[in-house]
């Protein structure tokens, strides 16, 4: 077995923060640190409240007061215009004392090293670090932590840890996966001139696509695309002998070729990453930080994900077996189906059935967020997110631990009894278990 990292007996749980509310929620549900980005210099422009220096200062101060870490993302690969403004824009931010800068571009790193030699730098996943030689290189120029590529297996991660025992390693364990190599995608820029690598990704890989077989045209005549027709030359994998075309939903008639080789098919939508079942192995390997993706997601997302991975980490460190209920709890988050990515290259049918069965048994849907509790009435005011009603089996998700009850009472905003609330945009009142009263934040999920 690989020795645990000498740097950290228990891995850090690192959560995304697109706003102060998300940051506070992440910490309340067990995260040790958060990462947030400057919109101009990170790969998340939208749904990012940290463009204002005041919000960034407040976030860093609150994190440090709570004994938590706040990492600032500057992982863009900039063109010259942004290079010229980088140091001036970063100077007041560095003065706020973020715990590290997450960076990818070597030129920007050199500029930071020259201006602020004591600032810690973490290497972004955008740098595509896939081997121990690259880890040693980055460490040799003063990078403190390496966020490894998503394309690595568990065995490869263990090999890197053995070869680089003194370097901090970080890995993504949950969230969206780009249909590209470590996020270096061109689809969004191709479709609507919004460059993912400059922070303005429109998630084009997740749009509605239809797949067409290019081997037959409308008349039924078979046709082949030549090797040199712009689809990539050289020998082709057997599965790639048939040429496929995709059509995006809002661009009828614009057919784009899809190429397939022995590694898979490129361009179509990926499932989301869920590696909670591998946390014990990652703890044993000695990974220093386990990272949740999703700076543009909701506070409920960061609450549920942080809570599940906190429990998985704590169980692994204590030597307790994996709690399969965590699989179902993560199904309550919006997802496009789950995969454990490249961590395990070949799953047995028994393993796949095991994961599927436990995932489906705990599926739920966010239906509300508790706004406050009226002790006189004994009821909580709830902002409705999705439909639910009397008789539903619901779960109160809060930092102190979750409570499951059968809903027996529901009142509308005026206090009149109702059987069911049809959907979002409303406020209702309902009773809380005694263990939930006063808990904040508190979300409500309905079992499906």
From TrEMBL:
Instruction: Name any one GO molecular function.
Output: peptidase activity
Q: Which residues form the Peptidase family U32 C-terminal domain?
A: 366-437
Say yes or no: keyword Transmembrane present. Answer: no
Record bears the keyword Hydrolase:
yes
Q: Look up the domain of life of the source.
A: Bacteria
Q: Please give the InterPro entries that the UniProt record associates with this protein.
A: Peptidase_U32, Peptidase_U32_C, RNA/ubiquinone_mod_enzymes
Which UniProt keywords are present, listed alphabetically? Answer: Hydrolase, Protease
A Gene Ontology annotation in the biological process aspect, one of them, is: proteolysis
Q: Name one Pfam family in it.
A: Peptidase_U32_C
- Annotated family: Belongs to the peptidase U32 family.
Annotated protein name in UniProt: Peptidase family U32 protein
**What is the originating organism of this protein?**
Aromatoleum aromaticum (strain DSM 19018 / LMG 30748 / EbN1)
